[in-house]
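Exam revision sheet. Question 4 asks you to relate a sequence to its structure. Input first:
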Amino acid sequence: MTTIVSDACPPATAVVAPPHLGSTSRFGRVASLHVGRDNLINVIEVMLDPIVLTFSVWVIGFMEEGELTLPYMILSLMAFALTFPGQPRLQESFGRSVISIISGWLFLATLIIFFGYATKGLSLYPAHAIVTWLWAAPLSQVVANAVLRLAAPLLLRAQGTKRAIIIGMNEQGSQLASRLAESPYSDLQVLGFFDDRNLERLHAIGHNRPLLGRISEASEYVNREQIHLIYISLPMATQPRIMRLLDELRDTTASIYFVPDLFVTDIIQSRMETVCDMPVVSVCETPFTGKNGLTKRLSDIVLALLILLMLSPLLLGIACGVKLTSPGPVIFKQRRYGLDGREIVVYKFRSMTVCEDGAQITQARKGDQRITRLGGILRKTSLDELPQFINVLQGRMSIVGPRPHAVAHNEQYRKLINGYMVRHKVKPGITGWAQVNGLRGETDTLDKMKARVDCDLDYLRHWSLGLDLYIILKTVTVVFKDQYAY
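Answer key, structure tokens:
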């Protein structure tokens, strides 16, 4: 979930890149947090990968040549330019940061080697030096990021904390304060709130945080206590009051951020954009626009082709097994909802004695008599899903994405679960974030389906190529020990 923020630094007003506050989710983290432009940790994160890659080239150059020659200087400049600014990774788990580093390095190394081959520049470097750099560079990045994780809390304490207040004690303001307090990499200390409601009314609606005074008293408090940052968390409908408050705060030197009540909306891939020079904020948008969409599609095509080629003997064997062990077609075709809620036809190896695709579909359950003996094995190991790689090549599906549900189930759950259809902002996937978190198999209760949908929405908020690769790798380990697939 993204917080839309503007930074006004009196007496002049400036607009800066909005900080991002991610929702706590199954990702086990709070998304990247950039609340202070002069935060030392932010600066280090931006510079870390470019500097580490640059030094790795220099070290190898000195080891091979005894000095830093021109070819190694050119390579180091290329590495720095292609990786600056570096990607913030502190808010990710260490495992996900390693996957992100490796996936980014594979792309960068392929690009540099292709460029060197095309320009015959590779001949300037000994083969031993090239091979050494291919493994030493990502290893150096992993080590440097691990060291930063250990050193970051100490650096923040040495740098000192910034004092902040929140104006407006409401849902988004309370969540903001909680997440700042929970983040080990935040250098902000939230002293309390300003609100015009009395303490008894605030306690009645569940808020028990320190109340420092009324909104009209905020400006005086900021000057007296030397507050560094102010977060205005007031309803957008109170624009006149917000404008009066901004006028009162012009006499302070604090940075001012606006946290609108869009914060409590189920925001998907929110970002600032302009339409005919008018600023707009996307509330619900697919993450696969522009270069992200191209990256996703290319990765789907390459991986689907490789998997189909490698598994072609297995596919042929399964097809023969299905045909010989039970009457009916080898491939089961079922209508599902795809991108933007349009119907698509999804392929699977037939694992049951029936081919249901009507208005009423009974989900498979444990001990289901409709499942054939071979079908039970296929469903348990997810091998029945392999024909969907053809759907990926057709452009109907992705390898990773929300799992498609039967049309009948979609029509049922879209009426029961708020935001259910948002999962159709992207193509459905063969595997997904819900599936690797144990949410496979029968959804015999509404809570199970809600949990699956929550995971799908988390995936949309936090998508990256590294996350896709992580899900694919984890799927391989999950399917063979999943007790809920039948």
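Marking note for examiners. The chain has three domains: 7-23+161-281, 42-156, 291-479.
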